[in-house]
Specification:
It is a single chain. By secondary structure, the chain is of the alpha/beta class. Helices cover 30% and strands 30% of the residues. It contains nine helices and 16 strands. Strands 1, 2, 7, 8, 9, 12, 13, 14, 15 and 16 form a ten-stranded mixed β-sheet that branches. Strands 3-4-11-5-6-10 form a six-stranded mixed β-sheet, covered by helices on one side. β13 and β14 form a beta hairpin. α2 (71-90) packs across α4 and α3 (104-115) runs parallel beside α6. The protein binds flavin-adenine dinucleotide (FAD).
């Protein structure tokens, strides 16, 4: 009898399964909340992004492009590496610099070099808010980094630390960065492999006290592109950069610029201008909904190649719902098929609201 009592006590006091229980609000995906859509091309590069120095006569050309679906995440790390390269090469000289491109890669590179006292002119066809970088969802994600080399992991870690301090300072050097939790469902094994940096933990999540799903949660940073890029551009101009609207068709046209150092941050535009066959487009399509103050987490369901896949990420002025990952597609056109699929996947997951449809 005594033994049975002890056994009973152990059974009820032992942690049966150390899985964390979480309650979250579900977003409202009804038609009245829909505000628009966006399409962008991720500038992926076979093997890796290009961070490389070339010399043409008296001119130095530095490439910084091809960051695929991680350009925002890696931006500060690449910018810091280029600024160190410049300091090592030029010591106390301050040669004139042309930066080609005014997305997140061009702007972070400009910011670093202006801080070191280099005179910078930015040339671009388009400026924020009209760049691919404004479409990027802005999740700091070491996507595809885990199996890359040590240099790339270091670039990622440097970028993460820089964004992290921006998220934590009262007066950050650039606005728009904050801490956020990600809840991911049906991709936990993939995530565990890809995100060892972020230590995913198992969770059981109940949405609106109604539907429960097992998944993983990790903590990362969110870069709200509207706020971040506007502030970054403003600060780069305040630090003294000159911005010139100009489109280049060839490398030769670029080499006629009257600057000592030219830094190529053209994103997918580098494919045509620099004839780079390794640069490949990956199209991404997103839906926009009105901002919802109770949604303060990032959500992902399914894998990129899975038909049920969708994700969402809240920004101050919109809830972004994605998305597609269409390799080889370089036309920036939105498809009705993608629009329906993304929206219906979102509605199906939160299907305790059956009255909602995506028509
Ligand atoms: C749907 C989607 C979601 C994404 N989500 C994320 C995410 O969550 N996290 C993340 O880290 N990344 C994400 N990305 C990837 C990220 O947005 C890109 O890697 C990043 O924006 C690339 O920045 P960039 O400055 O190289 O290119 P861009 O932003 O495209 O800037 C290129 C600049 O070059 C100029 N230019 C191009 N060609 C020429 C030319 N011939 N002459 C003159 N100027 C030219 C353009 O006008 C522009 O100013 C996402 C991308 C997409 C499409």
């Amino acid at each position: 009898m005594y033994k049975r009592y002890i056994l009973f006590l152990i059974t009820i006091t032992a942690p049966v399964f150390a899985i964390e229980q979480v309650s979250l609000c579900a977003p409202d995906f009804s038609k009245s909340q829909f505000t628009g859509y966006a399409v962008g091309i991720r500038p992926a590069r076979k093997g890796n992004f290009r961070l490389e120095v070339q010399t043409f006569g008296t001119k130095t050309l530095i490439h910084n492009y091809g960051h695929g679906g991680s350009g925002i995440s890696l931006s500060w790390g690449c910018a810091e590496v280029i600024s160190e390269l410049m300091d090592n090469a030029y010591q106390n000289e301050k040669p004139s610099i042309a930066i080609l491109g005014c997305g997140v890669i061009g702007l972070t590179t400009a910011f670093e070099l202006l801080d070191k006292g280099y005179p910078v002119t930015i040339y671009a066809s388009d400026f924020p808010p009209n760049t691919t970088s404004n479409i990027g969802a802005g999740l700091w994600d070491p996507f595809l980094l885990a199996d890359k080399n040590e240099f790339i992991r270091q670039v990622g870690a440097r970028a993460f630390n820089r964004f992290k301090s921006q998220a934590e300072e009262d007066f950050p050097e650039v606005k728009g960065v904050s801490h956020i939790d990600v809840y991911s469902f049906e991709r936990s094994e993939q995530r565990r492999r890809l995100s060892p940096l972020l230590n995913p933990v198992d969770v059981e999540v109940t949405f609106d006290h109604t539907i429960t799903h097992r998944g993983v949660r990790w903590h990362t940073l969110r870069i709200d592109g509207d706020l971040f890029l506007a502030d970054l551009l403003e600060k780069v101009v305040l630090k003294g950069a000159t911005c010139v609207q100009r489109t280049f068709d060839t490398k030769d046209a670029i080499l006629t610029l009257d600057k000592d150092v030219i830094i190529n941050c053209l994103g997918y535009g580098a494919k045509k201008v620099f004839q780079d066959p390794l640069l490949l487009p990956i199209r991404g399509q997103l839906l926009y909904f009105a901002p919802q103050s109770n949604i303060d987490y990032v959500f992902g369901y399914g894998t990129d190649s899975d038909n049920r896949h969708f994700f969402f990420i809240p920004w101050e002025n919109r809830l972004i719902v994605g998305g597609t990952y269409e390799k080889g597609e370089e036309e920036c056109t939105f498809s009705r098929e993608a629009y329906h699929r993304i929206w219906e996947n979102a509605l199906n997951f939160f299907s305790h609201s059956p009255s909602l449809t995506a028509d």
